């Protein structure tokens, strides 16, 4: 299954907030009103979600937030399962240390798809070398900068000026020098600082038969 490129607000309405997918939390377009009687809708009981659906939604939430294909996410789950520690927590750490997510966390891109575009277009340097692979796994002590070209600086400056990313840059595992537009990875992120409301154990259970 390829990477999702369809309507983003459709996924937000179904799965909840996905800050990595879009910088806007709510759609400006009003939801269409149902033709049925609103009183009947209130009396109609809501169907209880099955355990499979709960696991599926958590998996989809993780996939769309980080902008992964189904094959990529399955590969990360398998790697996490072979690593020492809790599979769910290791999975989140692997995804959080991706270069495109680090750029998003630093505020150098407004969304993870935007960060991926910066990397693909060779605007980003890690430890002084150009990296054009969004899935590049950052490590502690890595220094992330951008090319000296004016276009690269303009793209990053526009995102940094966004007020919605000021809080994201205040993370204990990352530091950001706004004067030089330089990010520094201090350590691997802890689970409680992951910027997504998700039950990662349901994701692991969803893939339990495939790992």
Low-confidence stretches: none
Radius of gyration: 19 Å
Order of helices and strands: HHHHHHHEEEHEEH
Beta-strand percentage?
Answer: 5-15%
Query: Strand order across the biggest sheet?
Result: 2-1-3-5-4
Structural class by helix and strand composition: alpha+beta
Distance between the termini: 18 Å
Largest sheet: 5 strands, antiparallel
Q: Using the coordinates shown, work out and report the CATH topology of the largest domain.
A: Structural Genomics Hypothetical 15.5 Kd Protein In mrcA-pckA Intergenic Region, Chain A
What's the overall average pLDDT, rounded? 80
Overall tally of domains: 2
What spatial form do the alpha-carbon principal axes imply? globular
What's the total number of strands?
A: 5
Fraction of residues in helix: 40-55%
CATH architecture annotation of the largest domain: Roll
Total helical segments: 9
The CATH homologous superfamily of the largest domain is called: RNA-binding S4 domain
- Per CATH, the class of the largest domain reads Alpha Beta
Keywords: Chloroplast, Plastid, Ribonucleoprotein, Ribosomal protein, RNA-binding, rRNA-binding
Biased composition (Basic residues): 1-14
Subcellular location: Plastid, Chloroplast
Region (Disordered): 1-49
């Amino acid at each position: 299954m390829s990477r999702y490129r369809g309507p983003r607000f459709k996924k937000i309405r179904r799965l909840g907030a996905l800050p990595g997918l879009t910088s806007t939390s709510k759609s400006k377009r009003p939801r269409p009103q149902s033709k049925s009687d609103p009183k009947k809708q209130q009396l109609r009981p809501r169907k209880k979600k099955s355990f499979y659906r709960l696991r599926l939604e958590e998996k989809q939430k993780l996939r769309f937030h980080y902008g992964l294909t189904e094959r990529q996410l399955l590969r990360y789950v398998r790697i996490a399962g072979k690593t020492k520690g809790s599979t769910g927590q290791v999975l989140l750490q692997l995804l959080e240390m991706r270069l495109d997510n680090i750029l998003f966390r630093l505020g150098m891109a407004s969304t993870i798809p935007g960060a991926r575009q910066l990397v693909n277009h060779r605007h980003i340097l890690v430890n002084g070398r150009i990296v054009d692979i969004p899935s590049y796994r950052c490590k502690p002590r890595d220094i992330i900068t951008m090319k000296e070209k004016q276009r690269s600086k303009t793209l990053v400056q526009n995102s940094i000026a966004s007020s919605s990313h000021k809080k994201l840059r205040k993370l204990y595992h990352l530091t950001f020098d706004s004067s030089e537009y330089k990010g520094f990875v201090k350590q691997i992120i802890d689970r409680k600082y992951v910027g997504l409301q998700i039950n990662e154990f349901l994701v692991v259970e969803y893939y339990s038969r495939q790992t």
